[in-house]
Amino acid sequence: MKRFVAAITATLAAAIAAGAEAPSTPAGTAVTLPAPLPPREAGARYGQALGVALICYGLRTTPALERLPSQYTGDARTEFDSESEKVLAAWREAGSCKKAGGPNACRLVHAWSCRAALNEIGPEGAILPGLVEQKTP
Fold first, then answer.
1. pLDDT tens readout for residues 79-106
2. What is the pTM of this model?
3. For the range 107-113, what are the long-range contacts, defined as Cβ-Cβ under 8 Å and sequence gap of 24 or more?
């Protein structure tokens, strides 16, 4: 759990340091990807979105997620893939609840992580908007 919290904290610190603001996107409109982020940051957001799909009830990935890796080639793609694997592994570990202090702690970690992800990569995300969205019935 400590590694997961550290990974989430590092991701949040990087987002705060970047100071990025996303434009407002009306619900139901197509989301286009902004100018490419550095490969490490984009890879982290890609892994985060895949983790959201595994853990967060009511959220799913969007077609924008599928287009994200194609923006990087060569060494940049290697860096992108490496970071996305690390972040996804942290989400998988958190999902297993092996290191949680009990079911309530695990549930809180999931809720906080999902809320943070929605704020960062959701339809009106502050870092890379449009990678995840609410599932529709």
1. 999 999 999 999 999 888 877 777 788 8
2. 0.72
3. 109/1, 109/4, 109/5, 110/55, 110/56, 113/8, 113/51, 113/55, 113/56
